[in-house]
């Protein structure tokens, strides 16, 4: 039996995916393998539990969904790699801070392969390149198990970020992988980032699947 299942899910609607995460986490027990869900979402703003309405400046026709992860408002859209981490932290003996470090360092290693020097910031979760945010993090832990995860800007329309204060920071500059590596694609980076996350999590028996 695998310790971890990595699913490549293509483009998935946000609400249905969120409901699936909650259902998976509520129904799992110690025998259930951890999972990584690698996907993209159609255009959507999500507002975390700490979110304040004033950080959503002009959403226009893009829906805003109130969700149960940590953090403030962010944007998801095509060309952004989203990976949700459904991890039994108790089984791994991980605290939340350890999981955040694993995620951030996996992104840093992936970007280094693209010739991009990136780093986390102690005051604001995520990964940054020259002060501009390239990846966002937001997690929820329930019954010792994590869900939600990371969003890496790869090759997307960045305009919707200008309609919000990203992660609650007015004027936060945003960037994406294609700014530095023009050929970058979500498909090209998804498997590599999953591999870096697997390495950080320490799972030895891993199964890769397409779809649910």
Order of helices and strands: EHEEEEEHHEEEEHE
Portion in helices: 10-25%
Q: What is the number of beta strands? A: 11
N- and C-termini, Cα separation: 17 Å
Secondary structure tally, helices: 4
Could you characterize what this model shows?
With 212 residues, the protein is an alpha/beta fold. 25% of the residues lie in helices and 32% in strands. It is built from 4 helices and 11 strands; from the N terminus they run E-H-E-E-E-E-E-H-H-E-E-E-E-H-E. It has helices at residues 14-27, 89-92, 96-113, 186-201; strands spanning 4-11, 34-40, 44-47, 64-66, 73-76, 80-86, 119-121, 124-129, 132-142, 145-153, 206-210. A hairpin with a 2-residue loop joins strand 7 and strand 8. The protein is globular. The protein starts with a strand and ends with a strand. The mean pLDDT is 94.
Topology:
Layout: E1 4-11, H1 14-27, E2 34-40, E3 44-47, E4 64-66, E5 73-76, E6 80-86, H2 89-92, H3 96-113, E7 119-121, E8 124-129, E9 132-142, E10 145-153, H4 186-201, E11 206-210
Parallel strand pairs: 1-2, 1-11, 3-4
Antiparallel strand pairs: 2-6, 3-5, 6-10, 7-8, 8-9, 9-10
Helix pairs in contact: 3-4
Structure characteristics:
212 residues; alpha/beta; eight-stranded mixed β-sheet; three-stranded mixed β-sheet
């Amino acid at each position: 039996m695998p310790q971890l299942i990595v699913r490549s899910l293509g483009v998935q609607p946000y609400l249905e995916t969120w409901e699936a995460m909650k259902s998976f986490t509520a129904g799992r027990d110690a025998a259930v393998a951890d999972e990584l869900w690698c996907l993209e979402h159609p255009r959507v703003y999500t507002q975390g539990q700490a979110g304040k309405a004033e950080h959503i400046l002009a959403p226009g026709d893009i829906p805003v969904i109130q969700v149960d992860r940590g953090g403030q408002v962010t944007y998801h859209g095509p060309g952004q790699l989203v990976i949700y981490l459904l991890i039994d932290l108790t089984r791994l003996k991980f605290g939340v801070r350890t999981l955040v470090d694993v995620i951030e360092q996996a992104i840093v290693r992936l970007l280094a392969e693209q010739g991009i020097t990136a780093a986390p910031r102690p005051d604001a979760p995520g990964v940054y390149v020259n002060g501009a945010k390239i990846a966002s993090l937001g997690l929820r832990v329930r019954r010792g198990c994590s869900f939600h995860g990371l969003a890496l800007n790869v090759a997307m329309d960045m305009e919707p970020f200008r309609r919000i204060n990203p992660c609650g920071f007015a004027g936060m500059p945003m960037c994406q992988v294609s700014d530095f590596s023009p050929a970058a694609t979500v498909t090209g980076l998804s498997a590599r980032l999953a591999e870096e996350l697997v390495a950080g999590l320490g799972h030895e028996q891993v199964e890769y699947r397409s779809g649910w």
